[in-house]
Amino acid sequence: MSNVTEYKNFINGQWLASKSGQTYENRNPANTDEIIGLFQQSVAEDATAAIEAASEAYQKWRLVPAPKRGEILYNVAKRLFDNKEDLSSDMTREMGKVIKETRGDVQEAIDMTFYMAGEGRRLFGITTPSELANKFNMTIRQPLGVCTFIAPWNFPMAIPAWKMMPALICGNTIVIKPSEHTPLSVVNLMKACHEEGVPAGVINMVTGDGPVLGPSLINDPRVKIVSFTGSTRTGRIVSEACAKNFKHACLEMGGKNVEIVMDDANLELAVDGALWGAFGTTGQRCTATSRIVCHKDVIEKFTSMIVERAKKLKVGNGLDEAIDMGPIINQKQLDNVLKYIEIGKSEGAKLQTGGERMTGGEYDKGYFVQPTVFSDVTTDMRIWKEEIFGPVLSIVSCSSLDEAINLANDTVYGLSASIYTQDINSAYTAMRDINTGIFYVNAPTIGAETHLPFGGTKETGNGHREAGTAALDVFSEWKSIYVDFSGKLQRAQIDTE
Ligand code: UN1
Asked: Is the C-beta atom of 447 inside 6 A of ligand 1?
């Protein structure tokens, strides 16, 4: 126990213990004997102190020229780039996903940071002619103030960076609560920002449980925006709490993403895509492929190809470069995934491969489950409708493009979808008619890039988007400015002559 590191909260430029005097252990989901560190079990008072610091720092930060804010972010991005390997292995140890993927997660944080650093010299508004003579019209983006972030565990650094970097470039200050399962990556992000010159109070972090910290992070009157990524159930609670005070809420929630495989698809490619989409990140991406809608003429072949490939995936500790799929994040999620596998079986879906917790040897120390494929799934089944957030794929048959599109849209969620086809007309029709925020042609449902908007329709989101310049719309408000240099009163809509 003695050589376990204790990590503190980060408030007003200082590493501070929680007022609770309590810490919690975070363990490696691939090997629960390994303690990643002790983290602060924070209480409301800690969140309030962080909000106080962010609120004070805002008065100066909002006045720092955006290109200067950008220079700091540029240095942060470089620092993350230089430390990419260490940051990635820390992340694999705390979250479990394989090292190739944690390198991708850190890279996504680097990309977002460089991208938003560049926005410091853009943050474009418009100028437009006035309807009156000797009058000048323009729009500028203004920051809002303190933003709070409730972050998930599946992208421990990328998603915090998606939220932080656009908020900071716009001139806001922030308080982040990382997931209790992946605080180390946010500690690392805070360190990089602090050491590269983000001023005290501009970024703050409190670790601990959502139900304890959430009310302060949402209800404190100094908080202007809450950005949340997580389940639709929790998102609804956040949304309702924000609505009472007209607080902005940016919500990224559940998904039930679909890959359509048409009869003219390149099947090898469609299988590659499905395998990566369904079992990458152990199926724990919001964008993960959990449904396949496959044309009846190729479904047998497709199913046997994917089953054969799924069986060959190497499951284990993600620090080993040869491993394809890591563990589930924790016992609760593992139980949930196993529960859904039982539900699938009892509903009459045909278990083609997987379905079991993996045991024996090193597996006993972690939360491992086999890559699982169900065929003969029907649309009344819960495994078709509900988000599982694990490596479980359901295959449904279709006989036309129209039917495929209807099946794709047969969900309360709307994050990501993809189609594999060689027919340009099918691709464009699906692109237009499938109701999601993200769409891929001949590519898997996962793999969004940072300079395009990220988010979903229906119960996946509330109309906002992260990433791209869309993120600037979340973290700034438009101010329309009219400058009248005529030296006389000019009345809009009245003095029309
Ligand atoms: C998420 O699963 O919440 O598009 C984020 C992707 C990644 C981000 C996923 N770039 O799969």
From this structure: yes
| Alpha carbon distance 485, 490 (integer Å) | 10
Cβ pair 303, 294 in contact under 8 A? yes
Return the residue whose CA atom lies nearest to atom 11 of ligand 1. Answer: 446
Establish whether residue 393 lines the binding site of ligand 1, counting it when its CB lies within 6 angstroms of any ligand atom: no
Confidence (pTM): 0.97
Two tokens, residue 242? 């924000």
Say how many C-beta atoms besides its own lie within 10 A of residue 127's C-beta.
10
Q: Which amino acid is at 430?
A: A
Nearest CA to ligand 1 atom 8: 448
pLDDT band at 367; cut points 50, 70, 90: very high
Dump pLDDT digits (tens) for 216-273.
999 999 999 999 999 999 999 999 999 999 999 999 999 999 999 999 999 999 999 9
Q: Hey, which residues are catalytic here?
A: 252, 286
Q: Note whether 282 and 96 are within 8 A (CB).
A: yes
pLDDT > 80? residue 497? no
Question: What CATH superfamily is the domain 9-253+461-480?
Answer: Aldehyde Dehydrogenase; Chain A, domain 1 (3.40.605.10)
Distance, CA of 56 to CA of 78 (rounded, Å): 28
- Report domain extents, the chain: 9-253+461-480, 257-441
> 257-441 in CATH: which number?
3.40.309.10
Ligand 1 centre to CA of 7 (Å) is: 27
The dihedral built from the CA positions of residue 423, 406, 289 and 428, taken in this order, carries a sign that is positive
Please work out whether the CB of residue 453 comes within 6 Å of at least one atom of ligand 1. no
Between the alpha carbon of residue 153 and those of residues 157, 178, 333, 450, the distances in Å are 9, 8, 12, 18
Using CA atoms, how far apart are residues 333 and 390, in angstroms rounded to an integer?
Answer: 8
CA distance linking residue 76 with residue 68, whole number of Å: 13
Q: How far apart are CA 242 and CA 223, in angstroms?
A: 10
- For residue 229, the ligand 1 atom closest to its alpha carbon is 3
Task: Tell me which amino acid residue 289 is.
Answer: T
Tokens 């942060």 belong to residue:
76
Token readout for 47 is 């969140």
Q: Residue for token digits 């340009």?
A: 424
Express each pLDDT in 65-104 by its tens digit.
Answer: 999 999 999 999 999 999 999 999 999 999 999 999 999 9
* Contact assessment for residue 10 and residue 204, using Cβ atoms and an 8 Å cutoff: yes
3-class secondary structure, 303? helix
